[in-house]
Here is the input.
Amino acid sequence: MAKRTKYCGEISKEDLGQVVTLKGWVRKRRDHGGVIFIDLRDREGFAQVVFNPEKSRSAWEIADKCRTEYVIEITGEVINRDPEAINPKMKTGEFEIMATEINILNSSKTVPFGIEDGTPSNEELRLKYRYLDLRRPEMLANMRLRHDVTKTVRHFLDDHDFIDVETPYLNKSTPEGARDYLVPSRIQGGHFYALPQSPQITKQLLMAAGFDRYYQIVRCFRDEDLRGDRQPEFTQIDIETSFLSPAEIQAYTEKMLVKVMKEVKGIEIPTPFPQITYDESMARFGNDKPDTRFGMELIDLADVVKDVEFKVFQMALQAGGQVKAIVAKGAADKYSRKDMDNLGTFVGQYGAKGLAWLKVETDGLKGPIAKFLTEIEADLVAKVGAEVGDIIMFAADKAEVVAASLGALRNRLGKELQLIDESKYNFLWVVDWPLLEYDEEAKRYTSAHHPFTMPKESDLPLMDTAPEKVYAEAYDIVLNGYELGGGSTRIHKREIQEKMFEVLGFTKEAAVEQFGFLLDALEYGFPPHGGIALGLDRLAMLLAEEENIREVIAFPKNNRAIDPMNEAPGKVSPAQLFELSLNVTIED
Amino acid sequence: MAKRTKYCGEISKEDLGQVVTLKGWVRKRRDHGGVIFIDLRDREGFAQVVFNPEKSRSAWEIADKCRTEYVIEITGEVINRDPEAINPKMKTGEFEIMATEINILNSSKTVPFGIEDGTPSNEELRLKYRYLDLRRPEMLANMRLRHDVTKTVRHFLDDHDFIDVETPYLNKSTPEGARDYLVPSRIQGGHFYALPQSPQITKQLLMAAGFDRYYQIVRCFRDEDLRGDRQPEFTQIDIETSFLSPAEIQAYTEKMLVKVMKEVKGIEIPTPFPQITYDESMARFGNDKPDTRFGMELIDLADVVKDVEFKVFQMALQAGGQVKAIVAKGAADKYSRKDMDNLGTFVGQYGAKGLAWLKVETDGLKGPIAKFLTEIEADLVAKVGAEVGDIIMFAADKAEVVAASLGALRNRLGKELQLIDESKYNFLWVVDWPLLEYDEEAKRYTSAHHPFTMPKESDLPLMDTAPEKVYAEAYDIVLNGYELGGGSTRIHKREIQEKMFEVLGFTKEAAVEQFGFLLDALEYGFPPHGGIALGLDRLAMLLAEEENIREVIAFPKNNRAIDPMNEAPGKVSPAQLFELSLNVTIED
Here is the structure.
């Protein structure tokens, strides 16, 4: 048979009277008065193909054998449909192809789920038959959207003189950060490569090499327990530059994202993106990645409640903590007492001991704690800006617990009360991060971002005296409540990098053992440099309006890090293990 | 200091009289009559910066402290050099910058090798200080060339409706092909992922999903012993299509490569690329990846020598083997008897028992075997087209040995006799490959390409009776004697794939255990499909006119698969092994 002349979805007026050859999948076949109609599907859409035994008996006979998802090729003339057969919902709905030839290229068993019946509810089945799941037009659209994102990013960076450099996947294991995936070496028995959690050090070394502007769309690996939006491997838009300020790097990032939003979604995003500091973000949203598509900000009530005789509030304040509230607008008649109990359980997950709340009614504040607050009722209502029909919800605890619980509650209520304009894409920079976090369990400091982040110059003296007070030249970019990426200025002087390792609890020897090559490199003309990494999966997910990154990954793992299709990871032969000088210590 | 206004290498006439800010590395510093001259280098080139103490004493003082490879930023006015100071070899050689400001951004110890003194001879040192090696302008140029190649490839494929899809790196280990790199699973103790040797099955499944045209520039992994042009990880331009014929796929590949050659090298390559069959290539060049930039083809002498009483020839012919020769034009006075002995040792590596040869002199053929061939001298000279001053070299053995030894000899002599026009880029398709090879050691058939390659339709009946005679719908693309890539039509029917596994020695159970998901997929409307994979490292190497792929890889491994910079692979902690349910079985 001839070459394909068109995609099914591209049949248009111009083809009328033309003979076309199409190749694709049988979407539907129906027999109507002895004439067979096949809806044929390919990547670009559908077309209706007609087999009239009076036109071609042989073609009709083959068409009669076709079943759903058979792969066929057909040749025929494009004609207008009868007026009453026009399907205005279908792009090619005015036309049909009067087939004179057909070949069956492959058959199909009955598929385990309909290709066009919406998303199957059993995700494990979707992953097992991923090639069929990806055949669904929604999934194909998601994968094409993802490609449009990477294409736009690449073209932008190519046009701005960034050099795409491939960095190694077989790397060195480092004890910082998340758990590494290891790759045993055969030639060096007992030694292991590690798959990169990010090419952080490598891209810094490219700056030492004078590459000036680097990018890579690169796979990264973390062997962590999986949550809804995590995968063992994920993709990063990785950028590093020399001699640029954070503001300049941010400006490039904004231009790039503006272009992505324009090309992929047709949406104009104004620049510069708003910025707030980490501290302000925690104070106002209880969160370092605030969803700014709705209000319901946290309001500090220390002043208002400082004299009331409500023990919960007083204890929190006296212990150096906070009392804060959010106002759920118009929620009073939507949340029963039982609903409020559920919200109390919910904030319990974030460390809160309970959820105090008040409904604003025409005759005043009502609720379990109303009796304690009668004196300040007017002040309180004024302070939080509440109106009749609202619910005021309180947290009184350590600052971290107040932020975590009210921040989570705010996000939940934002969704439940449908306060979020889903058409909005709110980009936001969260700047001035703390350099370190204190790990209560390990009793040591860990990096808030990574150990190569530059402390604010003015805070350098605090590295010795009060590391927890040191801020970093670090900034995150947030989109609609998701952390999209993180950037920073990196350390480019050996003495600062050594100090950083010291604060993180490395001995001098351990620092040299693990990072000696970087420390050495810092002594050979390492330029000031900084960069950013953006999560491609998450960006694609948000633009595809999906809620799980698995929807924008062709072959994801399930939440036990298994690929249900090929059943990876699998057993390997004793010979393979022997060559790698390894024994498995468990049976199964 | 202000933002950089220009790259050093971009200073031009237009900047005269302008104040510029440059940032870069001190290439050279010299003091000339109390004035300091610094050659400043960045990614784009060099500029001369002048520090005159009469212009700015403070700048001069700082410049005086600068040493080679210090990182500095300077500001000053662009002026014309004195006529006698103009350097016509330097792009910016007519200009200099009269500096009024300078900051030292970082210092540098004395570098272990000069950044501009040519390629250091100690490659291990280059790899240990790769960030300095990459600072050398030649290496930066190689990495940029590589990026230009990928950029051109991507833009071409983007423009031709190929969808870039990322496939998993954490995959399933399969027993076919080369040795896998394994990745132990923590969650499924005792189970392993494998890093992909190529995303072969995955991209085929994307065809099952109806993606129609896929591409990816993707890392692949093979745990093999390393040769000069191998690395544990390498990069593939990976392409798969549905419904296209080999000729159509080849035409796309040609258009893509023509564009690469045009954009990257400014060279026009005519299309279509020449094609020869595998059998013809072996017969004429002794090689399945012939370098066609020079002649010296193998000439079959069976007819000419069939009656001579030279035992070596007779035995070879009687055993069903061959007698062939190549003619080294004008080599007679270049190769001594001792040189010929060395060539004899050389062909010994390819299984030849020795090298028979004759020099063509004015008074006839001379050499150790001349006396056996006196009768046929005229016929022989005519057949091989030899002239006075040439050497005729013979091989008489099994066809494989004749091909291997004369093929290797031809390549060696082509280089030694400088027969190769290095400015040429000879692309060539080698088509009609055998489907299988017979592995003498394992006593079984193995795939010549991979087990998913479609046999020629007409040869299908031979799969049961004479598998070694089956040809495949497979084609390699060759450039200047290097295999650049391989393509094929893939099997899209379950019964053929099952037959293929059977021929390869799989039991039914083993085939299902390893490849059941593919076999299943073949029953759900799998379209006819095929594709190609091209080695990016090799392509970039050839275009960069390098002889080793390490020269076009930013951070390669050495030939023991070690990265001398960070010393990967390394030891890991007992805790890491415990979590992975592994023991190391050797000490070190």
